[in-house]
Design goal:
Layout (H helix, E strand, L loop, with lengths): L27 H12 L2 H11 L11 H29 L3 H9 L5 H29 L5 H17 L1 H30 L20 H16 L5 H5 L5 H29 L8 H4 L4 H11 L1 H18 L5 H18 L5 H27 L13 H17 L6 H13 L9 H25 L1
Helix pairs in contact: 1-7, 1-10, 2-8, 2-10, 3-8, 3-10, 3-15, 5-6, 5-12, 5-13, 5-14, 6-13, 6-14, 7-10, 7-12, 8-15, 13-14, 15-16, 15-18, 16-18
Length: about 450
């Protein structure tokens, strides 16, 4: 009797085209390592400032304590949403944008697919810029373009063997990341922290530095980072060995590590003196450069996920194109754009992502979990479902009425709508939660009406 020399899972990789079936080879621990690493991001460290200053690019407006609470609430809710988005992929074996054929119809799924491609390319560019900036600060200067190019090459290489890259994260990278996180927590706590209940900005604030009008905006800012992964979750969980593993890994591992990373970023912000770069607090502690190097290199898994999912999303439009060809082309594209563009309007970008994909997830949850019950048509001729598009637009409108964001003419349009409707946002209103619930409700009603007509 022959003894196999390779683990069976090692023989399987992601399919090259949309027409091939997806192997179910990722365990709970494979997926947990993947999502846990995505939760620890350089963007989360710098994004901590967005939570403290959710409505301005200048001074913080809520205290660090209030920011931690807002971040935890937003991340936990976002983690649950991410877990819900992971389930359909595990059940059907289909990637995220192909799943939308069952929600909107084959042709109408092209609209969110194009939006997803645009936001993933944007995130990929952001990540390469972040890696380049962090490496430049880590090494005290040097050729910025070289850091970006090296990050782009590493990103592209990872996308060629996506499932192998996920397993590599579990076996090697995760251990280094955990050690680095523990080290920085120990060092920051040893240095001592300021009063976390005081607003670090010049204008102060109420008790605990909380402006409750801004608290939910800060929560939405943290939630938007989690939500940015919702439209790609099924690209990976379609390879999950079980639905429970997909939900548990996506919701739990991601939320835990993002909370850890955000709090670390808030601590770093509290220790910043105003001199040096944005990562200076990490580099000033003992062995800081060594462990920060781990974060810089590991950041490539963020850009890898963005590029790979962009390729898979494009396959919803062109199912026969080899994902490797798409990945290489996209890797070159985002590298070139990262060399030309600058990282600006970060919060406005997050707001637009949240306003699009939070209500889309609400429609998907209502239709997949409450109506479909195993019936999900992802064929190329799946009929159009305009009712679900309507539910999506209702949720999108609710989000924009509450939080128009900071996106130029788009924001101006929704501010005018607010004025026309004499609508005033209240302090308790969360754009993410209310738009999600509105989309769920309308999608459920539409589904009930359609089902009722069929049974008459």
């Amino acid at each position: 009797m022959s003894v196999p020399t390779l683990d069976e899972s090692e023989r399987h990789e992601a399919p090259l085209t949309l027409e091939e079936s997806a192997p179910k080879v990722l365990s709970f621990w494979d997926q947990s390592a993947f999502w846990a690493n995505l939760g620890v991001s350089l963007v989360a460290f710098t994004g901590a400032y967005t939570v403290l200053a959710p409505n301005t690019e200048y001074a913080p407006q809520i205290s660090i304590a209030a920011g931690i609470v807002a971040m935890i609430v937003g991340t936990v809710v976002g983690g649950v949403m991410l877990g819900l988005a992971a389930v359909p992929g595990a059940q059907t074996g289909k990637p995220a944008m192909v799943l939308l054929r069952g929600l909107f119809g084959a042709k109408l799924s092209y609209l969110p697919t194009v939006l997803n491609i645009a936001q993933l390319i944007g995130w990929g560019i952001f990540e390469l810029i972040v890696i380049g900036n962090a490496a430049e600060e880590l090494f005290g200067g040097g050729p910025h373009w070289l850091y970006v190019v090296l990050a782009g090459v590493l990103t592209t290489a990872l996308t060629i063997w996506p499932l192998g890259s996920v397993r590599m994260l579990r076996r090697f990278v995760t251990i280094g990341v955990v050690i680095a996180l523990v080290w920085f927590y120990i060092q920051f706590l040893h240095k001592g922290l300021p009063d976390l209940t005081v607003n670090p900005g010049p204008t102060g604030g109420g008790p605990f530095g909380v402006d409750w009008n801004l608290f939910w905006i800060a929560t939405d800012a943290a939630l938007a980072v989690s939500i940015s992964w919702v439209p790609v979750a099924a690209d990976y969980t379609r390879h999950s060995r079980s639905t429970g593993a997909a939900f548990g890994a996506a919701s739990g591992a991601y939320a835990i590590t993002q909370i850890v990373a955000y709090i670390l970023g808030l601590f770093a912000l509290a220790l910043a003196t105003g001199d040096g770069g944005q990562y200076t607090p990490f580099l000033q502690v003992s062995l800081g450069a060594v462990f920060f190097f781990v974060f810089v290199v590991r950041e490539a898994d963020q850009s890898f996920a963005n590029v790979y999912s962009t390729a898979v999303s494009i396959q919803n439009l062109a199912p026969r194109i080899d994902r490797r060809v798409l990945s290489i082309g996209l890797g070159v594209l985002i590298t070139l754009l990262a060399l030309r563009l600058k990282m600006e309007n970060y919060f406005g970008f997050l707001g637009l992502i949240g306003s699009v994909f939070v209500p889309l997830l609400g429609v998907l949850v209502a239709d997949f979990f409450l109506r479909a019950r195993g019936e999900w048509n992802t064929t190329p001729d799946a009929p159009s479902r305009w009712g679900m598009i309507f539910a999506w637009l209702v949720g999108l409108s609710v989000y924009q009425l509450i939080n128009p964001g900071d996106a130029g003419f788009w924001t101006d349009f929704w501010v005018n709508v607010q004025e026309s409707l004499h609508f005033t946002k209240q302090a308790w209103m969360s754009a993410s939660l209310l738009s999600f619930l509105a989309a769920v409700l309308v999608a459920w009603i539409v589904g009930r009406v359609k089902t009722g007509r069929k049974t008459v």
